[in-house]
Design goal:
The complex is a heterodimer of chains A (265) and B (250).
Chain A lengths: L2 H7 L7 E12 L2 E12 L3 E5 L6 H9 L6 E6 L2 E2 L7 E4 L11 H11 L4 H14 L15 H14 L4 E5 L7 H17 L3 E6 L2 H7 L2 E6 L4 E6 L16 H14 L5
Parallel strand pairs in A: 3-8, 3-9, 6-7, 7-8
Antiparallel strand pairs in A: 1-2, 1-4, 4-5, 9-10
Chain B lengths: L1 E2 L2 E2 L5 H14 L9 H11 L3 H34 L1 H16 L6 H8 L3 H25 L3 H9 L4 H12 L1 H25 L4 H11 L3 H30 L6
Antiparallel strand pairs in B: 1-2
Helix pairs in contact in B: 2-11, 3-4, 3-6, 3-9, 3-10, 4-6, 5-6, 6-9, 7-8, 9-10, 9-11, 10-11
Chain lengths: 265, 250
């Protein structure tokens, strides 16, 4: 790829920030889980929080979700400070967090149910997103009848159906098998393209982060801090199956591994 | 179970024990054990009599009310204890004490507090059933997957919604297990209450038959009582099995 072409595809750092965290600290007793974490998440893009285990990436995500209060510092979503969970954010859980006693349809509609949307309306919306994530025909199935990958599609459909501007994903693909994960990653790329949402994505997989992200925040542990922000731009416009062969993709994966390897015991 | 290659229907062992009962009865080893056939004949003759029906009614009422209140109070208390550290610290010692306490010894105290009537019997019944119901609901709630709780919060569930739409259902297998054991204990409670507080219902019949050495009548009433407790407990076990499928995937 020539320099000019790379420049053409490169996007400027967007100034439209959907979510920002300012000087977030989180301590548990004397343990410092997060220290002075300042990050900005551009609107309509996918930002990964990547780091070795124990670097506080999930803690940061839960603080953004409003599920955990920070010890100090502030999270703002669209300029408004976060004081708890809110309708502007939806969460996708690592272990899916589905209601085992409820059908796929009710699970997907559950977020809307909690928001008081009338039954027929929320089931229409849910049915649409069930088809969108490729689970059409499974509306009346129960979670225990589905594979891990399908369960996470239910979790994703639930998060999409509440139409939040910010999607928070906590290692969403770590509990599904490798092949399903690849398919998920490809689907996620088109999701980011088609839905005008801000994605915040926690992962411990370097390849996954580089593959799906517009921006990668590398977090390092003890004390947890942002060491680097990487914006892979050269291959973002390429088709899903040629990214993994792109030299820039491979270089970034290598670079990140080089900076992280000393923190992995 | 299979015996000599033949599939035996469920509870076939009862036939064997019934036969043994009959043999012991016919051998007239002790007058306390009349033959099963005589007990069954007696059962048929007394089962339609007004005194039996009113005893059944009184017992069923006290039992039903006692179980009703122990579930109504016990399940929410257990769930709240499972969710709130403070309530748990406050109440758990008492629950454990009463679970293993000889409640029969408390009955005279209840009589002083609540009188010699139906009220005391209902309270006795509830006291026998409630502790295990609380404890099981608490256990059920405590092992709800944390991300299910976070899910409810992150999608904006109010505490009340989280209670009725998530916690209650997620803890249902354990709650039903607790209710089943509680009901078995309530059978004990209602009879003890009727024997000690006011001679009423089945308690009165037991008292009447045993003091007059009418052993066939005594056993007949006991059989009815066993059958009732057994059917209720089997029905709850059936409900439990219906929700057990999701106990593993919460």
């Amino acid at each position: 790829m020539s320099q000019i072409e790379a420049f053409k595809h490169a996007q400027p750092v967007p100034d439209d920030i959907a979510v920002s965290t300012r000087n977030i600290c989180k301590t548990y007793g004397s343990v410092e889980a997060l220290k002075d974490m300042t990050l900005e998440f551009p609107r309509g893009q996918l930002t990964s929080l990547l780091g070795p285990s124990g670097c506080g990436k999930t803690t940061l995500l839960k603080i953004i979700a409003g599920l955990l209060p920070p010890t100090s510092g502030e999270v703002t979503v669209n300029g408004k400070p976060v004081t708890g969970p809110g309708p502007d954010r939806a969460f996708v859980f690592q272990d899916f967090a589905l209601l085992p006693w409820a059908s796929v349809l009710r699970n997907v509609a559950f977020g809307l149910e909690l928001r008081g949307v009338a039954r027929s309306e929320r089931e229409d919306i849910a049915a649409r997103y069930i088809r969108e994530v490729g689970l059409g025909g499974f509306e009346q199935a129960y979670p225990h009848e589905l594979s891990g990958g399908m369960r996470q599609r239910v979790g994703l459909a639930r998060a999409l159906s509440v139409d939040a501007q910010v999607l928070l994903m906590d290692e969403p693909f770590s509990a599904v098998d490798e092949q399903t994960r690849r398919k998920f990653q490809e689907d996620l790329l088109s999701l980011v393209q088609n839905e005008n949402k801000t994605f915040i994505f926690v992962t411990h997989s370097i390849e996954e982060a580089v593959y799906v992200s517009d921006q990668i925040a590398i977090l390092l542990p003890r004390p947890s801090r942002v060491s680097e922000i990487i914006r892979p731009t050269g291959f973002r416009q390429k088709s899903a199956d040629s990214i993994r062969r792109d030299p820039e993709y491979l270089d970034i994966v290598d670079d990140i591994w080089a900076s992280l390897r000393s923190y992995v015991e | 179970m299979k015996l000599f290659g033949i599939n035996l229907p469920a509870m076939s062992s009862l036939i064997l024990w019934g036969l043994l009962w009959e043999v012991v009865g016919q051998a007239e080893l002790t007058f306390f054990v009349p033959p099963l056939s005589e007990v069954v004949r007696t059962l048929v003759t007394i089962i339609g009599t007004p005194s039996f029906l009113s005893a059944l009614g009184e017992t069923a009422y006290a039992f039903g009310m006692g179980v009703f209140f122990s579930i109504l109070i016990g399940v929410p208390t257990g769930i709240l204890m499972g969710r709130s550290r403070l309530l748990d610290e406050l109440l758990l010692p008492w629950v454990n004490v009463f679970l293993s306490a000889p409640l029969t010894a408390l009955v005279p105290v209840l009589m002083v507090l609540f009188g010699f009537g139906m009220k005391s019997i209902i309270i006795t019944t509830a006291l026998f059933a409630i502790w295990i119901i609380i404890l099981n609901a608490r256990t059920g709630v405590r092992q709800i997957n944390r991300s299910l709780v976070e899910m409810a919060r992150s999608f904006g569930a109010s505490p009340l919604e989280a209670f009725f739409k998530v916690y209650l259902w997620a803890a249902l297998p354990e709650i039903l297990g607790g209710i089943r054991i509680g009901i078995i204990r309530a059978v004990k409670g209602v009879i003890i209450g009727q024997l000690l507080i006011s001679i009423a219902g089945f308690g009165a019949l037991f008292e009447l038959y045993s003091t007059n050495f009418m052993m066939a009548h005594f056993w007949a009433v006991l059989l009815v009582l066993f059958a009732l407790a057994f059917s209720i407990s089997e029905f709850l076990a059936y409900l439990e099995r219906k929700v057990a499928y999701y106990a593993a995937v919460r």
